[in-house]
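Um, can you check?
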Amino acid sequence: MDRKKAIPAAWSRRRTRHDPPDLDEAIAAAQGLTDQIESQVEVAAQLSGLPEEDVRRRVLMTQAQPGRSRPALARGRQTEVVVIKRRGLRTN
């Protein structure tokens, strides 16, 4: 009863899309992880794939802006809930 089915050829052509975060998103994530500037620079550079010098300038500009707090995630909007259910095998 345990017949192994062949994997469809279309599955071998599937590719996972990888979109690294932009610099602002990477900085927001780094600020959420740590309060130390150098650690934020390192984390944001690794996340965005940019050199640390470019990231350091932007992080320092973000810290220097008065009255600007850390970016918040979609205030006032409700997030969409997605439920994924696994279906059992069909028996004929």
In short: Residues 52-64 form the longest helix (13 residues). Helices lie at 9-12, 23-33, 37-48, 52-64. The mean pLDDT is 81. The CA atoms of residues 72 and 78 lie 13 Å apart.
